[in-house]
Amino acid sequence: MSKEESIFEFGHSMRSKFLLDSDYIPLNHGSFGTFPKVVQEAFREYQDKVETNPDKFIRRDLIPEMCKAREAVAKFINAETNEVVFVQNTTTGINTVLKSLKYEEGDKLLYFSTVYVSIRKTLEFIRETYAGKVELIEIEVNYPISDDDLIDKLDKVIKEEQQKPNTKIKLAVIDAISSNPGVIVPIQRMIPILRQNDILSIVDGAHSIGQIPLNIREIEPDFFVTNCHKWLYTARSSAILYVSYKYQEKIHPLVTGMFSHEGFVSEFSWTGAQDVSSFLTIHTALEFRKKIGGEEMIQNYCKKLAIEGGNLIASILGTEIIGPESIIPSMVNIRLPIPTSNEEFTEAKFLDLMFNKYNFSVVVFKHNKYWYIRASAQIYTDLNDFEKVGYIVKEICDSFKTM
Which GO terms describe its molecular function (predicted)? Predict the structure, then answer.
């Protein structure tokens, strides 16, 4: 659908489609997402439908409904329906893969220093579980860095490890879009390198579906997990786990259910009673996105706003954003004029001011010796939101400079 064909204008006029408070400046869609009112209505309708006849829905309707939802989301990412199952969130999906795989002495697990903290801790859990047998390899990454240099780092580490006796890199966990900083990672260049070196690829795509185009057939990962409740607008929580047919026999839910070892899809279809209504809102979310203009229009608006808004905040602060523009999705990272050596400035203090005094939201994090904020652009935000946040953040930063 072209811009001219859409009857919706992005920006503050879209706020009425969501449940956000009118006096709140929401520049952190990336952390938890939020969903439109129409999705909330569908979510509650599914819950009500279950309760009218729980036994019939769970025993007869649940599996067919889940199959239709999987079919819709699989088509959206160009995967086959039976390559995709629902999980609660990306952390659950990555845990599922890492804890299903078996490890031998000398196995090494590769990841970048920008890995999400929960995934880092999961990798550490694997190392501790296989005490003395499994080693973690962290590739240090500091932005700004070019995609070419990032690929060179990966290639160099793999070659160095191959020279060591009695060891093998078993797998690599890579982000499609890293969390902090929030940047696009060149996974389509990384995965072929991993495959050529017999290294399993586990893609943390928590921020990917709905924020960037996804085509599983082009990416060809071994495993891919992404949250639908962030950028795709489904109800929270909802995520999909893609597993290549080649490895499905090795992957099992974290919770052993009644369909254990009866096939990949069957195992994940029932791990005990739970509310699956959020999974079933995939249809309404996709319909909403199509109605307001479609994927290209949504993603182009958000990326453009992230770049323009990020540069505006940076100009107010006298700093810069992490670039180039090619790695900026719908999130932008702006350096604060506060070095990490400033012991007075803390995340906790920033969040207290953010929530209790100013009523806005961004992510604040440390990277490469400085504090940064990550701001998310969305169809319900505009440049005025970024400008307001820019001056608020400047006021906060100035208060710490004078201490």
Answer: transferase activity
User: How many whole angstroms separate alpha carbon 176 and alpha carbon 329?
Assistant: 11
Residue 379 to residue 10: CA distance in whole angstroms: 5
Please give the CATH number for the structural domain made up of 47-280. 3.40.640.10
| Cα-Cα end-to-end distance for the chain | 53
Angle between helices 117-129 and 90-100 (to 10 degrees): 20
Domain ranges for the chain, please list them.
Answer: 12-35+294-401, 47-280
Domain 12-35+294-401 carries which CATH code? 3.90.1150.10
Within 8 A by CB and 6+ apart from 347, the residues are 364, 365
Choose among 296, 321, 326, 317: nearest CA to 308: 321
Can you tell me the distance from the alpha carbon of 368 to that of 107, in angstroms, rounded to the nearest whole number?
Answer: 30
Average pLDDT, 10 consecutive residues per value, the chain (403 residues): 62 96 97 97 96 94 96 98 98 98 96 98 97 95 97 97 92 98 98 98 98 97 98 97 97 93 92 93 98 97 98 98 98 97 96 97 97 98 98 96 63
Could you identify the residue written with the tokens 């006029």?
Answer: 13
Number of H helices, E strands in the chain: 15, 12
